[in-house]
Amino acid sequence: MGFFLTFEGLDGSGKSTQLRRLAAHLESQGLAVTVTRQPGGTHIGDRIRSILLDSRTERLDPMTELGLMFSDRAQCIAEVIAPALHAGNIVLCDRFTDSTEAYQGGGRQLGSEPVLRMHQTMCAGLQPDLTLLLLAGFGRSLTRARRRNQRTGAAGDEGRFEAEDELFYRRVHDKYKEIAAREPHRVVVIDGDRPIEAIQNQIAGLVDEKLRTAGLLPGLRAAGVR
């Protein structure tokens, strides 16, 4: 089996940038890395993503939204994540069930219970070996998300969630903190307010150590990490 690592955080937290940098770091050490995202990551998932994130999608019921998120996730597990893990790869996934618990459970106020129950059913309880939660200051994250949304074009944009109000994002932020407190053995909170390089070095060192413990990176010193 490989190693399953997920990146989480509010929109604008910098998690996608850090995922790409970590992938390059791991590949430079000769490790097989599979990168995917949610929603998306498969042909079917990309079609679901276009419904979920397009700001032109209107009147989508929160439970329908929840169902679509897990339909995308189940497909990604079957088509990408599970085969890569069985092949011994390091799987890096941009968002997983923690996002659904934060955005639909917290933001949409559905609560954690239906999210976790659906996770057991649709994902066979698959959990990441490690989750890196990038939490920048709330105001900074919200500003960055709004700015990114303004840069997207009117056609095919992905600004539906970024258009939500501040109270929605407060609930998401609080739910992420709740998840981290509930599962400290899995979720590591990363201070996202620091320079990109400082965050990158912290993540690389942390992940290298986890991989050594798992026997996937024996005797190698983390490249570029002091």
Summarize the structure in words:
By secondary structure, this protein is an alpha/beta fold. It has a single domain (3-213), classed as P-loop containing nucleotide triphosphate hydrolases (Rossmann fold), CATH 3.40.50.300. The protein is 54% helix and 12% strand. It contains 8 helices and 5 strands; from the N terminus they run βαβααβααβααβα. The chain has a 5-stranded parallel beta sheet with strand order 2-3-1-4-5, with helices on both faces. Helix 1 packs across helix 8 and helix 2 runs antiparallel to helix 3. The longest helix is centred in the first third of the chain and has 25 residues, at 62-86. The chain starts with a strand and ends in a 13-residue tail after the last helix.
Q: What is the compact description of this entry?
A:
This protein has 226 residues and is of the alpha/beta class. It has a single domain (3-213), classed as P-loop containing nucleotide triphosphate hydrolases (Rossmann fold, 3-Layer(aba) Sandwich).
